[in-house]
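ARCHIVE CARD
Drawer: 12
Card no.: 0347
Subject: one protein chain, sequence and derived structure
Cross-reference: see card 0346
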Amino acid sequence: MKQIEKIAEAKNFTAVSVGHLNELGDYMLELGPKVRISGKVFGGTAVGATGGEFSFQVFQPHTETGFIHNHKQHEELYFFLVGKGEFQVDGQIVPVGEGSVVRVAPDGRRSVRNNGTEPLVMLCVQYRGATFTATDAADGVILGDKVEW
């Protein structure tokens, strides 16, 4: 089973690699003795994330999530990086493909499928919903330091 590789780490950052997107199928997520999801890897713990979670997942042609789920508090952003498929939220089906982004509120009942002929690759970012404010949008500080490579 493939593992996330740590690239670098210091006081204020951690960098990892999940490998090439075409290698995602080598991951196996085990959520219990009877729940195994091929091609999915969570990375929040690996990078030490404290405010959210992320996962990469690949759906081979003509495969799907296999279940509908929602969340108690977490909103999700789904970024589609490669391929084509369909995303279902509350019974509504939306076509997705490279460059598509779908936001789903915690209560949204969601599922994904690849109805195409090529792998469908997505990145999902999960975070506590209804927490971002107008002041958060201005949180970044541009420093006067010179960039040196």
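Annotation on reverse: The two ends are 36 Å apart (CA to CA). Helices lie at 44-47, 134-137.
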